[in-house]
Specification:
The complex is a heterodimer of chains A (175) and B (812). Chain A has 175 residues and is α+β, with helices and mostly antiparallel strands. In chain A, 15% of the residues lie in helices and 37% in strands. Helices cover 31% and strands 24% of the residues of chain B. Classes of the chains: A alpha+beta (175), B alpha+beta (812). Strand 1 of chain A pairs antiparallel with strand 33 (809-810) of chain B, so a sheet runs across the interface.
Chain lengths: 175, 812
């Protein structure tokens, strides 16, 4: 009651720009997923993040942006549109270490085959000891969107899955 | 595919200890025998399923024949139908009741699937939000209910039968038990409102084209279908929750579909009344298409379809279809459809008419590639399995990015986009590859599971995994650079990132409990079979065994053990280690090449060996830095200052040959007998290089070791060490190699053929592998300056106060 506001009725905004919010199609062929990897590179002392989008999903998002006036075309091969995606990712993917935000810098983006890859990085003195991740990518675009984040800071790889109402998740036991 | 609720299962699954009923236990120590035989874990062979993996002598399966009359009300978007099911009980058991699948009920507002769905999250930091889709669905339910309306259930004599609906299943109680080998008839009448696929998702429905106020209809799971009754699980009792697909019986279908008279339709089966529903021109073109083997030709042209979709009529036509020995029946209709076709000649089977039906919105992409991809699928899949047994293979354009399979017919996505500036339709490389890939995959499903009728609700990998494997084979025969998985033509490079994760489940996990569905049920088994074919078994043995499995179980229902056993039975290869590692565990492949030690044969002649030993010591033990610094400073040692303190040992080091050494060597030579003496003499003449190479299995999954040796003259040699090298120690092994030339480097898995997930430890001498970001950073093709400029511009624009987002506010 306290956490949820109890019986207080609140106004609820419908997703901004959700005109194209896509219902959960039952793909027998391809799932609605963004795969991200968070990798500690000991050689460079960098935390390296790669987000892999299916191009069709990225272009569906661009189409939505075009309706809102953000994108001029829905061609994800254009650098400007990839930059739009980079900014979107900045707003929808966050890392913290012990509650302190890890400031990720955009490195760039590229197309490889069916995938759009977006890169972020952050120079750190040592791998994060209490890493937590919030991944909201495309969860305001596709109903049923599920995101996977592979985290590898040393030998082990953990996969965090973000779907439904999932918020921040901790990546523990990796060092 | 809905993945949303998988996470809820993940923790429970990952924390649960595996319940193995294995008589073998390592009661002391922690030895894990990765080659332990599977027989104790597989179901016992019986008269239904033989130990060879073939159907047993008492194998049985049920049969369900359907006669259905269905009418589409295009205005109301509604299906009304009556049908007669003739059910033959081939089991040895009497049946008191019969279960039917009511899959449309998943769209009921109170279905178990909808009630168990989780809420979607809003953007970060904005808290709870509601999607437009959810609001639209709510409004739609207020106007139109969904799910089956069962109007009557009677026996063959029109006597009402008692029935009970349990979510997506319906039990019909029989007045008398249906005896073994007996047959019963059930008559049904039903109706349902078709879902808007864009709004409700799913595998069927209708699509509305707002820009020209037109529709396409694609109907699947549209009639009450018999639940499978099997020797291994009785009635299949798992409800349809949306992820695990279908478990079905074979049967013969006679379906009459009444539609608006200007619709073009296609379906599972063979059209029985072309003279009544097709024009003379269309029939003539169909006849021509049956003679065309090189490229598709139109039955309905784009121009004719465009003209037709602008018309509309209240008249109706009835299309009658028959299909023999199929496990399902689906259909599609629209006045928008373009229709093209070409014939496919099969070396061992009859001709197949490959066809596509699609609206103008899907062109030019679909005219170019859909039907060609259908034909290519039949060519490649038949080579790997059996001749395609049906006369038609059809691809229908339906929802964006989708793909779903039924006997003879598949529903596929991908369309071009219209360029706003030029008004022309264009398509990207991704759309082209996406279309070709999805058509191959969905048409390929005709083989698995439409004909090799595995249990999809139970074991998704048995159809999706085997089919994805063949899909990759077909794609790489379409184009050697085809991105079969992600962006890569080599699936084995891609699967490692999934398999390394601690948060995965074995392939042998029930469909509804699988997490990371695409990787687990599609990609990993496809990668496994690629490793099996190209690296473990070799093509000759694999292809024979795989084809044997497909042919043994054609039009029958295999289980996982039937597949595992057949592959071994037909190849003469013990693959239990492979099934255990790839299908029953979450290990991954990561072999480290930890070290190499080089040797030459010793002559044991002290006059030869002593100088070599001295040389080696000099090379490996440089003078201590203290000694070097002393020399630099001109510090003399005691014996240099006092030469009289020197003796024999100062003049001769430990490697000087003495008489005892020579005598020992002479004794050794005298003791050498034939044939050892000749062997040694020859070996010393040839003087080979001997290498001891250390391997460590860091990923846990045992694997063959394909090695590439590079010699000092630049030549190379490839060696395949079988996986059995890990039999008695699956953690660390050492292998000896004797070479005539000096080796300068050794690399494990040069061809990327084992799914090795960490390539940085595959080389001797060690070679570091740059990370993906480092590769990107170094790449001259990354337009980073353009990206920086675009980011600067967009950030400045974003800072302008024009955000349309509405905040949450307390109610007034």
């Amino acid at each position: 009651m306290v956490n949820g506001g109890g019986n207080i009725t609140r106004r609820l905004a419908i997703f901004a720009g959700c005109a194209l919010t896509v219902a959960p199609a039952a793909f027998a062929h391809r799932s609605q997923t963004v795969l991200s990897t968070v990798l500690w590179n000991p050689a460079s002392s960098m935390l390296e993040i790669t987000h892999r989008f299916h191009n069709a999903d990225a272009e569906a998002w661009l189409s939505q942006q075009r309706q809102g006036g953000g994108a001029e075309t829905i061609d994800i091969t254009l650098v400007r549109n990839q930059a739009l995606m980079v900014l979107y990712v900045e707003d929808h993917f966050a890392l913290t270490d012990g509650g302190k935000t890890i400031a990720l810098q955009p490195l760039g983006a590229e197309i490889e085959g069916e995938a759009l890859l977006i890169y972020q990085e952050c120079k750190l003195g040592q791998p994060p000891k209490a890493l937590a991740i919030n991944n909201q990518i495309f969860r305001d675009v596709f109903e049923g969107q599920t995101n996977l984040v592979n985290v590898r800071l040393a030998q082990k790889t953990r996969t965090l899955i973000f779907s439904g109402t999932d918020g921040v998740k901790k990546a523990e036991g990796l060092l | 595919m809905k993945l949303a609720w998988f996470a809820a299962f993940a923790v429970a699954l990952l924390s649960a200890a595996p319940a193995l009923a294995d008589a073998n236990k390592q009661t002391k120590g922690n030895w894990d025998d990765k080659f332990r035989q599977l027989e104790v874990d597989l179901p016992s062979p019986n008269t239904y399923r033989a130990a060879s993996g073939a159907p047993g002598e008492s194998y049985w399966q049920q049969q369900a024949d359907y006669q259905i009359n269905v009418t589409l009300d295009e205005v109301k978007k509604r299906i009304t139908a009556t049908g007669t099911i003739t059910y033959r009980n081939n089991s040895p058991h009497p049946l008191n009741y019969i279960w039917l699948q009511l899959d449309q009920n998943i769209f009921k507002q109170d279905s178990a699937s909808r009630r168990s769905a989780k809420a979607s999250a809003g953007p970060m930091g904005r808290g709870d939000q509601v999607g437009m889709g959810a609001i639209k669905q709510l409004q739609s339910y207020q106007e139109t209910p969904h799910g089956f309306e069962i109007r009557s259930v009677t026996d063959g004599g029109s006597r009402a039968l008692r029935y009970t609906v349990n979510d997506t299943m319906m039990r019909i109680d029989l007045p008398q038990p249906l005896a073994a080998k007996g047959t019963t008839t059930i008559k049904l009448a039903w109706a349902f409102n078709i879902v808007d696929n864009d709004l409700f998702g799913g595998r069927s429905g209708y699509e509305y084209f707002r820009e020209n106020d037109t529709y396409t209809f694609f109907q699947a799971q549209w009639f009450p279908r018999l639940v499978a009754y099997t020797d291994y699980t009785g009635w299949q009792h798992k409800q349809f929750l949306g992820q695990g697909e279908f478990t079905l019986e074979f049967g013969n279908y006679d379906v009459s579909v009444t539609l608006p008279a200007d619709h073009i339709m296609t379906a599972t089966g063979v059209l029985q009344n072309p003279n009544e529903v097709l024009s003379a021109e269309q029939r003539n073109r169909l006849a021509q298409a049956r003679k065309e083997y090189s490229k598709p030709m139109y039955i309905v042209t784009p121009e004719e379809a465009l003209a037709n979709e602008k018309e509309g009529t209240t008249a109706t036509k009835t299309w009658r279809w028959k299909a023999g020995n199929v496990r399902d029946f689906a259909w599609a209709s629209s006045r928008k459809f373009i229709w093209d076709a070409m014939n496919v000649k099969q070396p061992e089977g009859g001709d197949v008419l490959a066809q596509s039906l699609f609206p103008n919105e899907a062109d030019p992409l679909w005219s170019l590639y859909s039907t060609r991809a259908v034909a290519h699928t039949i060519d490649v899949y038949s080579e790997f399995s059996f001749p395609y047994p049906y006369p038609n293979a059809i691809s229908v354009n339906t929802w964006l990015g989708g793909g779903m399979e039924y006997p003879m017919i598949s529903f596929n996505g991908y369309r071009p986009v219209k360029d706003d500036k030029t008004g022309k339709k264009t398509y990207t490389r991704q759309s082209k590859n996406g279309l070709i890939g999805v058509v191959i995959h969905e048409v390929g499903h005709n083989y698995f599971p439409m004909i090799v009728n595995s249990d999809e609700r139970q074991w998704t990998w048995m159809d999706e995994g085997l089919n994805s494997f063949l899909e990759f084979m077909a794609e790489l025969r379409w184009d050697e650079n085809f991105p079969v998985m992600g962006d890569n033509a080599n699936s084995l490079d891609e699967i490692g990132s999934y398999m390394m994760s601690e948060d995965q489940v074995p392939i042998m996990t029930n469909s509804e409990s699988v997490i990371q569905f695409g990787n687990n049920a599609y990609n990993k088994p496809a990668a496994a079979l690629t490793v099996l074919r190209e690296t473990v078994m070799g093509r000759e043995l694999f292809d024979f065994a795989f084809k044997e499995y497909a042919r043994r179980w054609k039009f029958k229902r295999p289980t996982p053990s039937d597949f595992f056993r057949t592959m071994e039975d037909a190849s003469g290869v013990d693959l239990d280690w492979f099934w255990r590692g790839w299908f029953y565990t979450t290990d991954h492949v990561d072999v480290a090449l930890n070290g190499v030690r080089e040797y030459r044969l010793s002559t044991r002649n002290p006059e030869t060996e002593a100088p070599l030993r001295r040389e080696r010591q000099d090379a490996t033990r440089p003078d201590p830095v203290t000694v070097l610094e002393n020399r630099e400073q001109g510090i003399q040692t005691y014996v240099e200052k006092h030469p009289d303190a020197k003796d024999f040992y100062d003049a001769n080091d430990e490697f000087v040959v003495n008489n005892k050494d020579l005598n020992d060597y002479a004794t050794y030579q005298e003791g050498l007998k034939e044939p050892d003496k000749s062997v040694l003499e020859r070996a010393l003449r040839e003087n080979p290089f001997i290498y001891f190479v250390d391997f460590e299995n860091k990923g846990g999954l045992v694997t063959p070791l394909p090695l590439t040796f590079t010699f000092d003259d630049g030549s190379k040699k490839e060696i395949m060490i079988p996986a059995e090298i890990w039999r008695t120690d699956n953690q660390k092994v050492t292998k000896m190699f004797i070479e005539t030339k000096k080796v300068v480097s050794i690399e494990y898995d040069v061809k990327h053929q084992t799914a090795d997930a960490v390539r940085a430890n595959n080389n001797w001498p060690a070679r570091s592998e740059p990370s993906r970001l480092e590769v990107f950073r170094m790449s001259p093709r990354s337009p980073r300056n353009q990206m920086a400029e675009a980011l600067t511009e967009l950030r400045a624009k974003k800072a302008e106060p024009d955000s349309p987002a509405a905040p949450i506010a307390p109610a007034q």
